[in-house]
Design a protein that fits this description.
Length: 333
């Protein structure tokens, strides 16, 4: 073999080695879509809800690799670049059912609180290129990849730098139509690989403010009747507070009805809803008994006053129960 031919084979071997090494290195840098998220597998790891929801993201070439780890046995979801609350968010939902089957859908949120049908239902395309998932010890892991720009009008274009606004959510059931148990808003800085949670006012917070205010007013009304009867015009103050509290309870009920309609949930699906109605009913009866006892004559006056006190106590207790159940429902405890 001539020297020229040997040199040619050496150079060719070196080129093949370099190409092979580059290929292996590139493959090693890409997350492996297998439903098992490993430490340092992704370039970015972003924690939300004190780590109960984690979003993983790597951008390699023209592809985005996503991983989600949510502390739930139900579904997990991420939405990209909503314009208002959930509206216009490019969403992906994933779950692992009881049979171990992985389901991942490419969806789009039509309005502030949904619905969010699959892209294909809207005339778009399913642009999830790969998907895998596992469910281990109460945590659901979903991995998927897609193009940065899919060409589908129901998908947002993902940049390799700058900021990415997201929404996230988790549900407790293996059904994409089941309600979420937690959700939130976040902003990811793709340049610095950092994230922050965005706190936004939620409808249930407005409902909670109304009901707590109603409780305070109604309780103050009871305080005037029991401890401050010697104060001038105590009865007028007592009635004003009781009526204001009762009015706010009713306002809270109507607000709750509106809130459930917006969220597209079933009305009166939880005990909390019934306790609120019971509290309002007891409050109205309490006021009626108070007015009647004021006008009545002995011995009916005393009997009505005692019943009035009993109903006032029951109204306050039911309000406390309603507020406590609401707090539990909102996952604050």
């Amino acid at each position: 073999m001539g020297a020229t031919k040997r040199l040619f084979l050496i150079v060719l071997s070196m080129l093949l080695f370099v190409l092979l090494f580059a290929s292996v290195s590139s493959a090693q840098n890409k997350p492996f879509i297998d439903g098992l998220i490993r430490d340092t597998e992704y370039d970015g790891v972003f924690n939300f809800a004190n780590g109960d929801y984690k979003l993983y993201l790597s951008i390699i070439g023209d592809e985005a690799y996503f991983g989600i780890a949510g502390k739930t046995n139900g579904w997990v979801a991420v939405g990209l670049e909503p314009t208002s609350k959930m509206k216009d968010a490019d969403m992906v939902f994933g779950l692992v059912d009881a049979n171990g089957q992985v389901k991942v859908i490419d969806a789009f949120s039509i309005d502030d609180y949904g619905p969010h049908p699959e892209d294909e239902t809207l005339g778009g395309t399913n642009d999830i290129l790969e998907k895998r998932g596992t469910e281990v010890a109460g945590t659901t892991y979903i991995e998927f990849k897609r193009k940065l720009s899919t060409g589908d009008k129901y998908d947002k274009i993902i940049s390799s730098s700058g900021k990415l606004n997201i929404i996230w959510a988790m549900g407790s059931e293996d059904s994409f139509t089941s309600p979420h148990i937690s959700r939130g808003y976040g902003e990811i800085n793709l340049t610095s690989q950092t994230a922050k949670e965005n706190s936004k006012f939620k409808l249930w917070q407005g409902h909670a403010i109304i009901m707590v205010t109603a409780f305070v007013l109604f309780a103050l009304g009871a305080l005037f009747a029991f401890a401050l009867r010697k104060v001038k015009d105590w009865f007028k103050v007592h009635m004003a507070l009781a009526v204001s509290g009762s009015t706010l309870i009713l306002a809270g009920i109507f607000f709750a009805y509106y809130m459930v309609s917006v969220y597209q949930r079933s009305h009166f699906a939880f005990t909390h809803a019934y306790t609120g109605i019971i509290a309002f009913t007891l409050a109205i009866v309490t006021i009626a008994l108070g007015v009647s006892s004021k006008k009545a004559k002995a011995p009916l006056k005393k009997n009505l006053r005692n019943i009035h006190k009993l109903f006032a106590a029951l109204a306050i207790i039911s309000l406390i129960v309603a507020i406590a159940l609401g707090i539990l429902r909102s996952k604050l405890l």
